[in-house]
Structures are given as C-alpha cells and as structure tokens.
Write a structure and sequence with these properties.
InterPro entries: MetI-like, MetI-like_sf. The protein is mainly α. The protein has helices spanning about 1-10, 10-45, 55-70, 70-105, 105-120, 125-135, 140-160, 165-175, 180-215, 220-230, 235-255, 265-270.
Length: about 270
C-alpha cells in the first residue's frame, strides 16, 4: 500500500530526499564540532585541567540546572529586552539621519568625514562616558547597544537612497507630489530592504557588544551571569551561557532575516 501511495504521489519522495540533502551537511558539521569539543576537553586535556569542566557532558547538565533555577530564562529575556531597546534607539536615529544625508548632497559631503570617524570608534570605548552620563544601570547598556547598531543602519539607509531609480522621483514630481508625499510613497518603500539589511548587520554587532556591556554594572543578563559563574569558578556554567548566547544570537539573526521588506519596484509591479 505504501508503494502505491508513493507511485500516486511521485513528488513526495524527491522532496524528502531534497530536504535530507540540504540538512545533512549542517547536521554533520554540528556532530563533528561536538565530537571535537568532547575530544579536546575530555581525551586530550590533562586530568586536572579546567578544560575538563567545559566538556559537553558537564556543560549540558549546567544548562539544565540554570534553566531549572530560573536564571536562564529571566536573564536571557532581560538581555533580549536591552537589545530591542538599543536597536529601537539606533533605528530612530539612524534611519532619519540616513534619509537626510542620502537626499542632500551638501549634507552628505559635510557629514561623511564625521560619520566615518565615529563609526570606526569601538562602541565599548564609550563605556566610561556612558557611565559618567547615565550612571549604573540599564541606560549605559542601551547607549552602547545603540552606538554599535546605529552606523550599519545609517549607512545602509544612505545606500538605499542612492539606489533609488531617479525616474520614480521624476514621475512623483511630475504629479506635483510634495516632499512628504515623495518620502512616503517613493523613498521609504524603496529603502526598506536596505534598512532591513542595516538592521540585521547592526543587530549582529549590537549582540556582540551587549554581553560585555552587561558586565559593567548591571546585576542581570547573560553577560552578568558569565561574570557570576567565573567568580564561582563554575566554568561549565560559563560555557553553558556562551552556548545560550550563540543560540539566541543565531535565532535573533534568523528572525531579522525574515522581516518583511519590499522594494519600490516590487510594490509597483504589484
């Protein structure tokens, strides 16, 4: 009966084979990585080395323990919340500034040296100033995350404005569209994909900055938990939190890559 079903649905088997063919390289790479991790920390490391604490058979129970204690979920949620707030601040600053710079040649010439200078400064180097301005707490973390994410968003917005087909703007002007109408109907839809790309790039940088930023005065978050586990010499928990940071970062990047975005050309075709 199974063979009859397969013969009557010939598209099912190739599709399943295609899914397996796409999935197995990634699955094999993950298994190989875990094996090399186990080999380095269990077989090759000295008997009393701290590396033995970071072996998979000790790290995975540590993840379960952190979860059962309620630490993992609450601190991961706080870290994600700080990331969202910092990204929102970066969007509020970066997108309007990018539109302004991209639409005005004189402003672009004036702003380019300043932007290039500021974006080359490590966001973490602003830490003393952020603490002096905002004190200890969430505000310095928001500042550092926004400082990390704002430049990719701004520069990609400028790039999106430059990529607009000027014919669309000429058509809008021929219909006597105001500047606000051009911005709403032509420019913003056209730069949407570029803004999404900038957000994704900024998100990666912001996530990297977030963890050390949480080691600078807050008493919650994944970065703080790394310091807390280190002070207790619980290196299995340190690696457990590092794994969680990697998984969450990959998940956030995946969500960002699936954000809706349509270019003006696609909108016009529709």
């Amino acid at each position: 009966m199974t063979s009859t079903f397969v013969r009557s649905n010939p598209g099912l088997l190739p599709a399943s084979r295609s899914a397996v063919a796409k999935a197995w390289p990634a699955a094999a790479a993950i298994v190989l990585t875990i094996f090399l991790w186990w080999l380095a920390t269990t077989v090759l490391s000295p008997e009393y080395s701290l590396l033995r604490q970071t072996a998979p058979q000790r790290v995975l129970p540590a993840i379960v323990d952190l979860y059962q204690r309620g630490v993992l979920v609450s601190d991961a949620a706080l870290s994600l919340w700080r990331l969202v707030i910092g990204l929102a601040i970066a969007m509020v600053i970066g997108v309007p500034m990018g539109l302004l710079i991209g639409l005005n040649t004189r402003i672009e010439r004036a702003a380019t040296p300043v932007v290039q200078f500021l974006r080359m400064i490590s966001p973490l180097s602003w830490t003393p100033i952020a603490i002096a301005l905002f004190g200890i707490g969430n505000q310095p973390v928001y500042f550092l995350v926004a400082a990390a994410a704002v430049w990719p968003i701004l520069l990609n917005t400028v790039s999106g404005v430059h990529a607009i087909d000027r014919g669309f703007l000429d058509v809008a002007r021929s219909f006597h569209a105001t500047r606000a109408e051009q911005l709403r109907v032509v420019i913003i839809p056209a730069v949407r994909d570029h803004v999404r790309t900038g957000l994704r790039l900024g998100l990666g940088t912001a996530w990297i900055v977030l963890v050390p930023a949480e080691m600078l005065g807050v008493r919650s978050g994944l970065g703080y938990q790394i310091l807390n586990a280190r002070d207790q010499l619980a290196y299995n928990q340190v690696v457990a939190i590092i794994l969680v940071i990697g998984v969450l970062g990959s998940a956030v990047d995946f969500v960002a890559s699936r954000l809706p975005g349509r270019t003006f050309n696609n909108r016009a075709d529709g």
